[in-house]
Structures are given as structure tokens and as C-alpha cells.
Amino acid sequence: MKALIVDDEKHVRAAIRMLVKWEAHGIDTILEAPDGQAATEIIAREAPQIIMTDMMMPVKNGAQLLEWIHSQAPHSKTIVISGHDDFSLLRHTVQYGGTDYILKPIDAEQLNAALDKAVETWRSEEAVRNHSLERNIQINQIKPVYWDKLLSNLLADPAQYESTAGTLHKELGLSAETTTIRVAILSLDTMERSLKDKFYSNQELLLFSLINICNEFLHVQHRGFAFRHWNSDHEIVLLLWLAPDKAAGVLSEINEGMRQTLRCKLDFGLGEPHSFPLGLSASYKEAQESLNQRNLLVKTSWIHSIGTSSFVPPKRLLRFSDFEERLLVAIRSGSHEQIQMSVQLWIDAVKEVDTITPRQLNHWWNEFNMLKRRWVQDFFPDQGEDNSELKAISEPSGFIIPLDEQGILSLKLWQQELTRSMQQLSKLMLEHQQKGSNIIFEIAKYIENNYSQDITLQDMGHRFYLSREYISRKFKQQFHVNLSDYLGKIRIDKAKLLLLNPHLRISQIAEMVGYQDEKYFSKVFKKTEGVSPNEYRKLL
């Protein structure tokens, strides 16, 4: 905490410094000012929590300083130290927030008591201020989620409008006379490559930025409102209720704002005008459909609607599964060249298609992921559920359509992604095969299955017909720990699971994981986990 002493007499300032037990009050910075004017400059710069001031001073006196503090630094607590027993000065002190009025000559006990009171008052008020600030932050964090949930539910069930009408009119400026509305969708699935790369690790920030840009334009004349769709991680929904016939122009304005702010544009799907509120769902589905049926191979507009769609059904249905055998052989070969060639065959077939819609692309993506899940199950029958790398391959995150800088589907980028994913799977498969034939992994598996027994290097040497030295050296090379530490970790991990059972005694658990001496088990457990088995169980 900081304290400021204001007095035109230097010896008085020195006396106050000497009489106060600063550290006991939590004050570590003591400032001084010879008059009220100098004090205002220090207060503006340093923001001291406690101010001790004389009343009669040149330039700006104490009464004027109190008035300035009351308006400019209201959280500071002021103690007046004066040589004048004047009721008008005391009244002025109380009127402008002073916590005490002390007469000179200064009594040390009285001064410390006044300071203690001022410090406690400041701390109490600061706690209230911090609580209020935290509450406001929480409210501001919850508020967008509230609107996302409420409006998403309204899209699904427009009949809920009656119960929320008052809130919508008051908070969003939705007029009670509104009878027609249009729904637009901004989908992040079709963002430009540059924007995808810029916000690769922080999609939440991207959503926040896009919604803010949309609402900056929609708040003008209360034209509408944008929110994040509750049931979709990649979808922003815009409700457009003012002049629905001009909705396309509003979306173009928003897209231009995005171009200026984020250096790129995004695709909007726009539903037809429908009655409000009952037509919300219909307009939303039309907006979805207009996005899903546009041709990704050409770019004629950023605003898509059913009426302007140039969708032409493909002449023949191309299926990813038709190429499964060739892709699987390439993966099993472990050859990067074979994988690249097999993916190239697929891309060549895609190039023969005249129309590729987001719906078709998503169908191919799901086919590919279904094949990968099947391959993972075939290649790794015992590891698919536990291996994080395999899980990432077989259960990828949502698909974002690979677009170039002009917003057109980039087959090159898609080819690179398919090739990378298949090469990664092939690499893991080869590593798994190598592990299966590696004697060290057999030893590790034996330890994992027999950890409760007395296992030594000599036992392993006899069992696997290898020297102790060879096993010790190779085991550490492979797992970066020696065999006894590896065994110890397995035992402690199993013990932690057994400690979840309150009916098992510590001695029983020790024996179950391979320790005949309960005290030695407790010593090893504490060394590894930092707490004894009993303490660990209590923490659980």
C-alpha cells in the first residue's frame, strides 16, 4: 500500500514518518508533498490508498485538496492533521470523506489508531469493489452465452417467442411491430486459407471477432442481431428484421467490413423472408441449404440464396469407398510414393466432376474417416482406444473446407491433407509392427502383466535367454528408464487405482502390487507421489 503525507512544514512530515508503524499497517511506500497542488500531481500519478494532510498550506490548502480528492480520487482514505481546532474545518473534513481529524501536537497512539481505521475501511471497500468487478466480468461472460442459447432455441422452436418477446424488444431493439424476418448463416467451414491460418490455435477469438463485426453493422438502426449457434461450433446466425428485402446489401456491407478488418471475406447463406416468429425455422433451413448446395469450384458471389443458386446435380455419383483397396495397399506398403500415387488417382477422379458442393465434400470426408477408423481397428486391435495419436487419426476434429485465397475449393490443399493423414497412419502402422517383433517390448509387456511378482534382471535374462547387461542397456535405450524404475512406476500406478477402494487395507494393496513390506511400500509411494498412501486416499 501507498501513503502520502501532505504538509508545508518539513519537520512535521518527518515526525509523522517516525511516529507511524507503517509495516504493521501493510504500507510499504511513503510519499510526501509540501502543498495541496503538489499533492494532486502525486495522487494522479501514484494513486496512494491513504492520504494524511494539513489544512493550512500555501498554493492549495487542505480544504481545497479534500474537495479535489473527493471528486478525482474517491477511493483514497484521508486523515486530516491540523493545528486548528475549528468546527468549520472538521465539518469540511467529514463532508468530503475524511476518516479522522487529529490535532497537533500529534499523539502517536491516536495517529496509528486513525491510520488503522483508514486502512481497514479502504480494504473493506476494496473487497466490495473487487467482488463487484468479478461479478460484472462474470455477467459479461455469461451474457453472450445466454443470448446464444435463447436465440438458438428460438430457431428450433419459434413458439417460445411469446415468453421472450419483452427481453428481445428491450435488449436487441426488435420492434414489436416486426412481422417479417430473414435468417443468414456465416459458416466458418468455408473460411479463406489465410484466415484459417491466422486463427488456427484460437477459434474462439475468431468467432468473437466475427460476431462483433456483424453486430457493429446490425446495431445501426437496430437492423438485426448476430449470435453463435448453440448446436454448431462453426456457425454464426444473423437475424435480419429491418427491411428484409435489403438483407443481401447488409450482408455485403458486413463482408466488406470483414475484408477491411480481417483481410478476407466469408460466404453467407441467406434464407427467404418469412413471417415472424413462426417462419424462423424455415428461413434458417433455407440459409443452410443455400450454403450446402453452392458449387465450390466457382466463385460468383459471397452471398448465397435459394433464388440465386446455380446448383446442377452431378451426372454421376463419385464415392470415396471405391478407392479403398488401392489406398489400403498403399498404406500397408509404407511407401510415401505409393500413398501419393493412390491419392492422386482419387484427385484425378474428382477433377472430372463439374459440381462439388459442401454437402458432397462433407460426405466424402465422412467416408474417408469411416475407412480410417476401420483401418485403425485392423492395424491396432489392442491400442485404438488408448493411443492418443491413433485417436487423433480416427476421430479428427470438424472438417474445414480447404479454400484458396479466392474462396474456391483448392484440390491441391485437400490432396496434401489426405496424403499427410494417410502417411501418418502408415508410419504408426510400421512402428507398431516393429514393436511387435522387438524383444524389449515383449519384456515390457511381461512386466506389465506380472508386476505383482518378484521380477529381477536375472529372471528376465533366464526367461528371454539374454544377458542382464543387454536387457538393462536396451531397455533404457527404448524407454529412457531402467527396468526397476519402470516396474516401480507400474506398481505405484496400480496402487493409486486400488486406493480408490476404501475397503482395502494399505498392507493388502502393498502385497497386491508386489511389495511384501508395507512400510517399504509407503516409503516408495511417498517418494514417487509426494504423499503417503493414507494421505493420497484422504485427498481422493
Structure in words:
This is Two-component system response regulator YesN. Pfam families: HTH_18 (PF12833), Response_reg (PF00072). InterPro entries: CheY-like_superfamily (IPR011006), Homeodomain-like_sf (IPR009057), HTH_AraC (IPR018060), HTH_AraC-typ_CS (IPR018062), Sig_transdc_resp-reg_receiver (IPR001789), Tscrpt_reg_AraC-type_HTH (IPR020449). Keywords: DNA-binding, Phosphoprotein, Transcription, Transcription regulation. 57% of the residues lie in helices and 10% in strands. With 540 residues, the protein is an alpha/beta fold. The chain has four domains: 127 residues, Response regulator (Rossmann fold, 3-Layer(aba) Sandwich), CATH 3.40.50.2300; 152 residues, Reverse transcriptase/Diguanylate cyclase domain (Alpha-Beta Plaits), CATH 3.30.70.270; 116 residues, no CATH class; 101 residues, Arc Repressor Mutant, subunit A (Orthogonal Bundle). Strands 6, 7, 8, 9, 10 and 11 form a six-stranded mixed sheet that branches. It is flat, with a radius of gyration of 36 Å. The two termini are 40 Å apart. The mean pLDDT is 86.
SSE inventory with pairings:
Blueprint: E1 2-6, H1 10-19, E2 29-33, H2 36-46, E3 50-53, H3 62-72, E4 77-82, H4 87-95, E5 98-103, H5 108-156, H6 161-172, E6 180-187, H7 193-198, H8 203-218, E7 224-228, E8 235-240, H9 247-262, E9 268-270, E10 274-275, H10 280-292, E11 303-305, H11 324-333, H12 336-351, H13 358-379, H14 388-394, H15 411-436, H16 439-449, H17 457-464, H18 468-479, H19 483-498, H20 506-512, H21 518-529, H22 533-539
Parallel strand pairs: 1-2, 1-3, 3-4, 4-5, 9-11
Antiparallel strand pairs: 6-8, 6-9, 6-10, 7-8
Helix pairs in contact: 2-3, 8-9, 11-12, 11-15, 12-15, 17-18
Domain HTH araC/xylS-type: 441-539
Organism: Paenibacillus eucommiae
Domain Response regulatory: 2-119
